[in-house]
Amino acid sequence: MQENNKSNVVERLLEGESFANANLANIDLSDQSLVGADFSSADLSGANLINADLTDANLNDTNLAGANLSGAILLRTYLVGANLTDATLENANLFGAFLSGSLLSGTNFRSADLRRATLGCPQCIPTAPFGNLTTFENANLEEAIFGEIKLEGIVLLGANFKGAYLYEVDLSEAIYRESDLEGAITKQGRN
Questions:
Q1: What residue segments make up the domains of the chain, in order of their start?
Q2: Residue 172 carries which DSSP code?
Q3: Are 53 and 74 in contact (CB under 8 A)?
Q4: E strands, 63-187, where?
Q5: 135-191, pLDDT tens digit by residue?
Q6: Nearest CA to 144 among 119, 125, 173, 170?
Q7: How far are the Cα atoms of 89, 111, 149, 150, 154 from residue 131, in angstroms, in the given order?
Q8: Which tens digits make up the pLDDT trace of 90-110?
Q9: Burial class of residue 2, CB neighbours in 10 A (0-12, 13-18, 19+)
């Protein structure tokens, strides 16, 4: 069995190896190019992914609870069904990322770029994918898509929703100013 340390994982990724279902809890992959990596269903809980480049990576169903992705690049990254509980994505670039069905309880998206990202659960009504203390403060959510979701305990202060599509989104328990939602397109949501 091979050891899963930083240099070993990076070397194996360069050889095209998949880390689907791998146990990489608490690994330090900060400042690494992980473009196109397959971490689907892996355990990356507590991982240090600060400033990592995860462009086009597959993080579907990955456990990222408590992971630090501050400043990470997640362009077009798939995070469908990922557990981002208590994860930090402050100043991360999630342009075009797919977060449908992800667990975002206590997740920090402060000043993150979520332009054209997809959040929520367009094909179902999730029981509570967002939880208390999740923040999108000063995040750029321009042209993002939020589908069929209740934003309970979510902080949206200073977020940019210009051109964002809020489809059946319940904002009744979110913290925001009316001006924060200026330019958003809503359909059957409560705000």
A1: 1-191
A2: T
A3: no
A4: 98-100, 118-120, 134-135, 145-150, 154-155, 165-170, 185-187
A5: 999 999 999 998 877 777 788 999 999 999 988 888 888 889 988 888 999 875 444
A6: 119
A7: 16, 19, 12, 10, 7
A8: 999 999 999 988 888 889 999
A9: exposed
Answer yes or no: are the C-beta atoms of 160 and 142 closer than 8 Å. yes
- Inter-residue contact 122 to 143 (CB < 8 Å): no
- DSSP for 71-86 reads T-B-TT-B-TT-B-TT
Q: Which two tokens stand for residue 173?
A: 């328990």
Structure tokens at 126: 């999730």
Tell me the CATH architecture of domain 1-191: 3 Solenoid (2.160)
Q: How far apart are CA 175 and CA 96, in angstroms?
A: 24
